[in-house]
Structures are given as structure tokens and as C-alpha cells.
Amino acid sequence: MVRSKLSLFLAALAFAISAAPAFADIYTFKDERGVVHFTNIKGLDSRYRLLRREGGGPVAGSGNMARTAMPSQADIRRYAGIVETAAKTYGVETALVHAVITAESGYNAQAISRTGARGLMQLMPDTARRYGVRDSMDPRDNIYGGVKYLRDLLVMFKGNRELAVAAYNAGENAVIRYGRRVPPYSETLGYVPRVLDFYHRFQTPG
Predict the structure, then answer these.
(1) In the 8-state DSSP scheme, what is residue 123?
(2) Is there a catalytic annotation at residue 187?
(3) 65 located within any domain
(4) Do the beta carbons of residue 161 and residue 155 sit within 8 Å?
């Protein structure tokens, strides 16, 4: 059954890519029945996330990855010590830090987004400077800066994880501007539940 579903998924993906105009972006989402949908039309539905960029380039960086799979245990273990120490230092749940890293970079310490966000927690240059991060591509420096920022967002929004995560993606000013609610940006509306899903998975590993 699993193999059958995988075959259908791959066939649908191949069809979507071949049917789309040359060099078209491909967007996808999985509905509540587990059916995977594809389109080459941007903005057709807020649930769609970019899967394949124009020209076949990889989709990388904050908000540009439709990451739904958990990272490998090897990837998690590689940075687990830094994550745990930083989380304890700044009073942030370890599971939440792992969730943000998973959604932001998929544990790729060399990830750079098209908007300039860098490293494991995809820090923008201004955020890195604000939190004293000298080298965003250094895993320890990046994680400590990202966790400090996450801590400040949790304090700002009184421990509300949903709003803190939304602010991490869209910026705290956007959350405040929309009445301390998740901003109605399609990227953020997809990002928040994805991070919270990872958060719950890291809380109950296995």
C-alpha cells in the first residue's frame, strides 16, 4: 500500500513537471485526505508551497522550503549539544528550537535563502547583527543568535508559541500590526503550523 501511494505520488509529480511550461515553478500541497496536488500557478491557493523553482533550481532558505519530513537522526545529533545548551541558556524549549531549524534549513548549516537569510536558523543580516552573531554560517554562532531571538519573541508575545513562530518568519512588527495575530501572508500561514507540527514531533520522538 505504501509503495502504491509512493508510486502514485512520483507519477503525479512527473506529470506535473512535464505538463508545466518549460522552466515553470511547481507548487504543491497535501490535502486532509492525503492527496497531493500540483500547480504551476503562483497564488492559486494559500496551501500551495513551492516545490521546484524555475529552471529546476533547489528551493532553499527561510519560507522557501516546503519541508514536511523530519531530518535524519544523524543531522539532529550533529547539533543536539549546541541546541540543548543554547535552549537551556535562554529558557527556550529544545523541541521548539529543533522545530525552527527543521523548517528553516532542514539542518543544512550552509543554507542561504534568496533573501539573504543564512545558516541553520536562517538569520537575516540585520537580525544577526542585532544579536551579536559574527558568522551566521558557524553553527554555534547561528543557533545561539537564533535562540536568543526566539526567546525575545516568546517574551514579547507572552509565551504564545504561535505568535512567536509567526514573528520569526514575518517579523515582530507584522504580528503587532495585525493586532497580535498571525499575519495573513500565505508563507507565514503555512510556516506556523509546519513549525508547530515539528515541535510536537520533537516532543514525542519515535
Answers:
(1) B
(2) no
(3) no
(4) no
Q: Is residue 18 part of a domain?
A: yes
pTM of the model: 0.69
**The CATH number of the domain where 188 resides is what?**
1.10.530.10
Nearest to 104 by CA among 53, 153, 150, 42: 150
Q: Is 181 among the domain residues?
A: yes
Q: Which three cell numbers stand for residue 15?
A: 506529470
Tell me whether residue 30 is in a domain. yes
* Cα 185 versus chain centre, distance: 14
pLDDT digits (tens, 9 = 90+) for 34-79: 555 556 666 666 676 665 444 333 333 344 344 557 888 999 999 9
Given the residues 104, 162, 172, 187, select the one marked as catalytic. Answer: 104
Alpha carbon of 68 to those of 138, 166, 194: distances in Å?
Answer: 25, 17, 7
Are residues 159 and 192 located together in one domain of the fold? yes
**Domains in the chain, number:** 2
